[in-house]
Amino acid sequence: MRIATPPWTPSPGPSQSVALEVLINGPISRSEIARRLDLSPGSLTRLSTPLIEAGLLVEVEERVDGRAGRPSRPLDVVADSRHFIGMKLTGNGVLGVTTDLRANVVATASAALDSRDPDAVAGVLAELATRLGGSVPSVTALGVGIGGLVSDHAIVTSAPFLEWSEVALGTMLETATGIPTVIENDIVAFTEAEHWFGAGRGLDSFAVLTLGAGIGYGLVVHDRLVVNEDSGIGLVGHWPIDPFGPLCPAGHRGCARSMLTQAAITQAVSTALGREVGYDEALDLAVAGEPAARRVVDDAGRGLGRMIAAMANLTVPERIILGGEGVRLVDVAGEAMHRGIAEDRDPRTHKLDIVATPGDDTEWCRGAAVIAIQRYVLGRRL
After folding, report:
1. Where would you tag: which of 169, 266, 340, 370 has the fewest CB atoms within 10 A of its CB?
2. Which of 31-37's residues contact partners 24+ apart within 8 Å by CB, and which partners?
3. Which residues form the HTH marR-type domain (predicted)?
């Protein structure tokens, strides 16, 4: 696989700020760039001209500037000039995507894990990277999202679902593929994808809540992701939402993990019906009006609403983004969710801006690709 060699040219400072503004928000007029970055027209011309000459930015089709009422030539990046790979690693497999510079997916592939041995897993990831890289001229960087604690954007400190501790996965993959690699907690990666290219783009603050095998939470405040050394532990899964709810494995009664995960919902419905059901079947039964399934799903929806209310009350985000492979709960239990929100929100408060993502597994992979994109364009590990 060939590795892209042309560098992202802007050095830290105003030049990089212009390039990033166009990458994230382009195509965008020069007047809007100048307004956002508080630059004079002359300064913007001085900063943007070398970027255009270097082929990093390009002038696109002329359009009328809404402020000035005259034609302008918006600036944009050439999105397909560079490509990135993003992967989501689970306990039994890996899904990967190839994206362009704006995290648009151009190829997907997956592979099963026959072993959880770190060397064996790294081999599977490297082989998948080769397959994904074959769909584009070259690959600039590789990102891997993992449910667990990650240090130095390279070492998996703890990943219980893989039974890993202190695995230098980043170095292993860079050695195997020759591609600059960044490892990140999957919720952090998912949130950054929404931040740069998703429903959180352009917002000063927003929160992310993901539903699936676990419960994930991300927060952006003042246009920056809030992270620390505990990011990846899954602390939000212990948030109490029903004092009379079921026990979680840690012994907490009615916490988010015991009520909102896919496993919690399927277990409760299976127990009530006396047979095993899957997640989608449980939701389908609720939609069809099966009493036990409807009760379990509505209880989960109400709990989700109370959790959303707590997030809104505590962090006051402009928007709350719901995602993950279990996000279909929002559609099936929407009324119960809004009842739960109303229980814990002052009636004088404004209506919450809640956006649900499609819940496609590729969204996790896009998140990992965005971490790789950020590492590349910012010139540092994030």
Report:
1. 266
2. 31/65, 31/67, 31/68, 31/72, 32/67, 33/75
3. 14-68
User: Over pLDDT 90: what percentage of the chain?
Assistant: 81
List the structure tokens of 188: 């952090």
Confidence at 357, pLDDT banded by 50, 70, 90: very high
Q: What value does the mean pLDDT take over residues 115-142?
A: 96
Q: Report the C-alpha gap between 305 and 325 in whole angstroms.
A: 18
Is residue 9 very low, low, confident or very high in pLDDT (cuts 50, 70, 90)?
A: low
**Cα distances (Å, whole numbers) of residue 347 to 206, 309, 344, 350:** 21, 12, 9, 8
pLDDT at 65 over 70: no
CATH of the domain at 289: 3.30.420.40
Residue 206 and residue 345 in one domain: yes
Q: Whole-prediction pTM value?
A: 0.92
> How far apart, in whole angstroms, are the C-alpha atoms of residue 243 and residue 258?
11
Q: What is the signed CA dihedral for 40, 43, 45, 51, rounded to 10 degrees? A: -130
Residue 78 identity: V
Show the tokens assigned to 250. Answer: 């840690």
Rounded mean pLDDT, 64-75? 66
Claim to verify: residue 170 and residue 207 sit in the same structural domain: no
Q: Longest C-alpha distance within the chain, in Å?
A: 73
Are 231 and 296 within one domain?
yes
How far, in Å, CA of 68 to CA of 66, rounded?
A: 6
CB 257 within 8 A of CB 239: no
Are residues 230 and 272 located together in one domain of the fold?
yes
Query: How buried is residue 111: exposed, middle or buried, by Cβ count under 10 Å (0-12/13-18/19+)?
Result: middle
Q: Which residue type occupies 87? A: M
**Strand, helix or coil for residue 104:** coil
Q: What is the pLDDT confidence band of residue 93, given thresholds at 50, 70 and 90?
A: very high
Local confidence band at 382 (pLDDT 50, 70, 90 cut-offs)? very low
Q: How far apart are CA 217 and CA 308, in angstroms?
A: 11
Residues 181 and 208 in one domain: no
